[in-house]
Amino acid sequence: MKVPLAACRGVAVSYGDGEAVVRALVGVELSIAEKDGLALLGRSGSGKTTLLHVLGGLVEPTAGMVEWQGRPLATLDAAARGGLRAHGIAYVFQGGNLLPHFTAFENVAFAARVSADGADPALAPTPLLELVGLATKLDHLPAELSGGEAQRVAIARALAQRPQLLLCDEPTGHLDSDTGERVLDLLQALQREFGFALVVATHDVDVAARLARAVQLHDGRVLATEVVA
To answer: CB atoms < 10 A from the CB of 176, how many?
Structure first.
């Protein structure tokens, strides 16, 4: 049986103590294969963002473990964790989360400098921004971009890391329906081209239906997994 790209094994995450404890995740079992397409579907507070952060190694589980290519993340040394964040896993945060005083070009260039070795010219800032349809916006600051344009810069920035796994937190949450559809079209076209696994956290069932699989979350628990397509 092929080892999954990433997996959660009985993962729990809790914050606080005693009566004030908040159980953000409870006993989550989840596997993500290479080139997978997965939606994490649930309302605000259901645990979607925490699960993304756990998968990306940004939050350590209180119990259980997260695996990357069959190895527990907790066993990776600092260099391996840095390499994982540089090349293995990339994020598109809710609202884009761009550096406000950097242009579109500079936002992508920063990620490229941190993450890439420069060997692939197709993953340089200008070609990436051209790929997401922003060839004329290279020198624009985030405040000068529309919501959809800012999200496309965030996608280009993530691609500069050459990820095997792309984690997206409500990538259409602040966009109108037409712009949101275009962002999803772009994400899925890029997934086909670059071959990364795509995990999208969303509260929108229509967005979830665009992915091959959907995991329903409620109060930190996985209620059901559905094959959508």
So the answer is: 10
* Residue 130 burial (CB count, 10 A): 13
pLDDT (tens digit per residue) in 9-24 = 999 999 988 778 889 9
Query: Which amino acid is residue 20, in one-letter code?
Result: A
Report how far apart, in Å, the C-alpha atoms of 97 and of each of 39, 56, 117, 153 are. 21, 16, 24, 10
Q: Is residue 5 a contact partner of residue 26, using CB atoms and an 8 Å limit? A: no
Could you tell me the CA-to-CA distances from 188 to 10, 75, 82, 100, 184 in Å, in that order? 29, 32, 27, 27, 6
**Strands laid side by side in the 63-68 sheet:** 22-32, 6-15, 63-68, 71-72
Identify whether the C-beta of residue 93 lies closer than 8 Å to the C-beta of residue 169: yes
Which amino acid, 226?
E
Contact 35, 196 (CB under 8 A): yes
Residue 44, burial from CB neighbour count under 10 angstroms (0-12, 13-18, 19+): exposed
Question: pTM surpassing 0.85?
Answer: yes
